[in-house]
Fold these 2 entries.
Entry 1:
Amino acid sequence: SIAWPWLRVMLISAFVGLLMYIVFYILIPHFAGMQAFGFLGVVVERSVKNLGSSRESLWLCASEMIFQKPWFGHGPLSFAKNCSSMGIAAHPHNWFLQIAAEWGGLALISLLFALYKGVKALLAVGRSLQPTDVRGQAILTCWSAIAFAVLVDGLVSGLIVMPLSQLWIAIYMGLSAGWVRSVVGKNLKSGIFVFNIISVVVVVVVSGVLVIGIMATRLAGEIPENNAKLLS
């Protein structure tokens, strides 16, 4: 019942969107003597015949990369190089496999821990809200649904590498974290200060390692480039 207002809006929006699709992309072209536009039918047919839509090959290649270098990975954006022979995509369309293959198992474990803490903090807000707080319950439902959608959609898409989706994910994280802080801020324990200090230290150290790794990769790529012979 708490999530019903949000679910009602989503269901109405989905119905209106489907209705508009049928009217503008199917009915109007049909009565105008034209072929139907859109790709809804193609998506359904493709999903029935090929459930993974050729993603199985991408996931297999990413898995092979993980087995080759399970702890530290092959480096950022290395999937495009290692799996380019397939000619399908430059990323595995799966954030879990991509982080594990390119950044390594240690980075994946760190990310999963951060996700766990974030989702746990978000769900813990529910205990601070009153059942009669309709606005607060609706906001919590929205934040929870968005987090679930991002994590699930990222298992079959490339949202983790697309600049626009990266921007929206960053905006979501900032807004949801700020809202959580505003709700439970009065109940924070003093230990949270120590946790924040440790978090800052970890972020600085990881950022330093990342910068060093990127610079080392760049220098390694420049060596053969500088030693290359010019064509006469």
Entry 2:
Amino acid sequence: MKKKALLLGLIFMLSMSGMAFANHKGDHGFSLEGKCYMKLGFLMRYAKQLKLTDEQLQAIKDKKFEIMRQDIQLDSQIALVALDIQKQLMADVPNQTQIDTLIDSKVELKRTLMKAFAKTIVDVKTLLTPEQRAQFKELMWSECKGGK
């Protein structure tokens, strides 16, 4: 009985580690989504220190909600295409042409989303004055190093 419990525990741990590995996106820590949301949040959190004008802050908030909306829309479209791919693969006679088309569609949606995140970062940075950009960079580095 103890051997069975130990074996089941070992199988469970191995399966969980496999799931964790499968969920790793392979982006080696580089995520435009994460960087975009981090920069937007950082700018809003340190608006006073950066001496952002009301107009700048409002533009940043608008950009944040715009990208969040686009993220939700494209993520849901990506999920629906993934579901269609899964359905095709589970068919008795999968249609390779349709699968290829769906994969192309999914890749294009992801490309559109990554470009939107990059554009948001660029747009927000151009809202800042050169002095604010320099101070923003300093604050980012000090926060990355653990200082506040």
